[in-house]
What does this fold into?
Amino acid sequence: MTIDINEITQGLPGLSKISGQHLYESCVVCLSRHTHNNLGTAFNVYGDNEINYNLIWNNIFDEQLDRTWADQFYATEHGAVCLAILLALKLTDFTIIEKSARKNGFDYWLGQKGDILFQKKARLEISGIFKGAVKDVNARYKVKVKQTNQSNSLNLPAYIGIVEFSNPTANFGVKK
It folds into this structure.
């Protein structure tokens, strides 16, 4: 199964095409700095499902893009958002309908795909690790599960996506 990272640039109900391009660039930077192949890089996803994806993207990495995304922490966080959103689209019946407000314990509101009313049906919390091990991904997942507790009164599912770039991996699942 393949994930074409370019798809994020088409936008979503709660993500403009320009914002999608921004996320795309950051993701390409993170993958390119680890010298991953744009024509096919293994992306191992576990959590609720264990799936091995093949990541592909247009090779837009150059010196200008490298300088644009000089802040590696910023690039990692936004690159992780790119991949976690694409995973949410692949692995759930939801799409991004709105960026959430700060301090509520999650990053995005999810709504049912095809619902023109854009009703808030679930939450999505995302984090990225530029270089780490599976134990780091799992530890971050636990932290993010706790972080979503502050919005539990909404009684909506909370999806967590933690993305690691050195050996592209993600722990993606709904909080139990």
About this structure: The CA atoms of residues 111 and 121 lie 5 Å apart.
